[in-house]
Design brief:
By secondary structure, the chain is mainly alpha-helical. Helices cover 73% and strands 0% of the residues. The chain has 19 helices and no strands.
Length: 425
């Protein structure tokens, strides 16, 4: 792998101009790659309970809306050259951003465990018991650690741009075409579904791009041009998210292990090997951003130690924890981060009119705890849980309008009202 001049331990400070080198093509490659994965297949399979028309509308609208919100979160990073958790400081405060940082680290470790489990299980199924699961977990853990230490500029320009993305595109095209030509499509076209509403399907789709929002600025802060990065993020993620949710419906299997087996049986194991390659960038992004999120709290810790530590913990847990029901994981992500970014985006684009100063982010006069943001976020989370059909506290008597859009509207509106009426954050 050819090395490039890259600050692998770049922390939470604004990225200097000379390191803002990623172009529109780079971001299209990055975000289209991150939109691919076996977990997207799993999420897409849940939509088989909706009618085909409702499912397809939810996939297209949810992918476009979610990718737009994802890109808006990333644009704060590319405008101000700062990582995601720092972008929360003007609204949540320096100390107030610690709670989202901790939740983000927990989420990212969870994703890392899932990805390492999936890659290891796929590799084990491909070669048999000759190489046991735990050996594969260690191998993938080491490889992901190396990618994390190399940093985003090297990974995007060298690993993804020159090799992995072409493998991802080729395998994705082959799989989607094969699934379209299968016997499942005619059945789906005539299926009325089994009761899932459009808005419930929309919640499941939009959860995927939104799950990347807490880390979008970690990578888009290296953009040479902010508007180009915005466009590439929307288009790149939306395209692959639509394709893989559609593929999930056609495959019709929710359990990740069964998905691996189904793909292996249909495509003779070849594409499983390719998909393993495509999952490594997702795992890299999780580990790298977990380190950056931690630096929002403990900025003096060496990023390399954090990357090694998080990957090691995730690898060990991947050997111990069985693959859980993915639907619950989607719920937890959406419930926390959907309304959170309703607050963050409202603060940056409406309250501050896209003007964050370094003093707001790092200065002595920077807000310490943004109670207005925390209250608005908390109310939004409650709204999400009450409306979501997947929630343990779901209120069935409420209208079936979904949870994603209402929780964003509630947290954003409440924040804007409180800021204007009270004059504080």
């Amino acid at each position: 792998m050819t090395s490039i001049k890259n600050p692998p331990r770049w922390g939470i400070e604004p990225v200097p101009l000379q390191y803002r080198v990623l172009r529109e093509r780079d971001y299209f490659i990055l975000w289209s790659s991150l939109g691919v994965g076996l977990l997207v297949f799993s999420a897409g399979s849940f939509l088989s309970d909706a009618s085909f028309i409702d499912a397809m509308l939810a996939i297209v609208i949810g992918s476009l809306v979610g990718s737009f919100l994802l890109a808006l979160a990333g644009k704060i990073g590319s405008d101000c050259a700062i990582p995601s958790l720092v972008s929360m400081r003007p609204s949540f405060g320096i100390y107030g951003s610690y709670l989202p940082a901790m939740l983000n680290v927990i989420q990212l470790i969870g994703w890392t465990i899932f990805e390492i489990m999936i890659m290891s299980k796929a590799a084990e199924m491909l070669v048999g018991k000759f190489i046991p699961f735990y050996v594969w977990a260690i191998i993938f853990g080491i490889f992901v650690t190396l990618l994390g230490i190399l940093g985003p500029l090297t990974v995007i320009k060298q690993w993804l741009g020159k090799f992995a993305i072409w493998v991802v595109y080729a395998s994705s095209i082959i799989m989607i075409i094969s699934l379209i030509m299968s016997e499942n499509l005619p059945k789906l076209l005539s299926s009325p579904g089994s009761g899932m509403s459009f808005f419930s399907a929309l919640d499941i789709v939009i959860a995927m791009p939104i799950s990347w929002m807490p880390i979008a600025a970690d990578y888009n802060r290296f953009a040479k041009n902010s508007n180009s990065a915005l466009r590439a993020t929307i288009i790149g993620f939306a395209i692959t998210n639509i394709l893989f949710y559609f593929g999930g419906i056609l495959l019709g299997v929710t359990d990740v292990v069964l998905i691996i087996g189904a793909i292996q049986s249909i495509f003779y194991g070849f594409l499983i090997l390719i998909l393993i390659v495509s999952e490594t960038d997702n795992t890299f992004a999780d580990v790298y951003s977990a380190a950056v999120s931690t630096q929002n709290i403990y900025h003096k810790i060496d990023q390399r130690y954090l990357i090694v530590g998080f990957t090691s913990v995730s690898t060990i847990l991947a050997m111990m924890i069985p693959i859980a029901q993915y639907e619950t994981f989607i719920l937890l992500i959406g419930a926390v981060f959907v309304p959170l970014f309703g607050v963050v985006l409202s603060d940056y684009y409406i309250v501050r009119n896209r003007k964050y100063t370094e003093d707001m982010l790092f200065g002595k006069s920077a807000l310490k705890i943004g109670f207005t943001a925390i209250i608005s976020w908390s109310v939004g989370v409650v709204v999400y849980y009450l409306l979501s059909l997947l929630s343990p506290i779901h209120m069935a008597e409420l209208p079936k309008i979904g949870a994603t859009i209402p929780s964003i509207i509630v947290s954003s509106s409440l924040y804007l009202i409180m800021v204007r009426l009270k004059g504080y954050r």
